[in-house]
Design a protein that fits this description.
The protein contains 2 helices and 2 strands. It has helices spanning 44-49, 53-70, and strands at 12-20, 28-36.
Length: 76
């Protein structure tokens, strides 16, 4: 990926979206959405240490909503 000019941010925030496709819950569609954690003004160390814990609720809700808006799946 680096050879093609794509570089991941130093710290990522991931959301895992799972849709169970059958009644037996044996088939699933999983999409992992990632964003730059730094764009939310937080760091992994800050969140884990508790120094930025007050940001987490806001970040969690915002990134989940952004993921839902950014991803669309159709079954034809």
């Amino acid at each position: 990926m680096l050879q093609n000019g794509y570089r991941l941010p130093d710290e990522l925030l991931n959301v895992r979206l799972v849709n169970l496709l059958d009644a037996e819950r044996r088939k699933e569609l999983m999409i992992i959405y990632a964003e730059n954690l730094g764009s939310y003004g937080a760091t992994v160390n800050g969140l884990l240490s508790g120094q930025e814990q007050d940001l987490w609720a806001s970040i969690e809700q915002r990134v989940l909503e952004k993921a839902k808006q950014a991803i669309s799946v159709r079954f034809d």
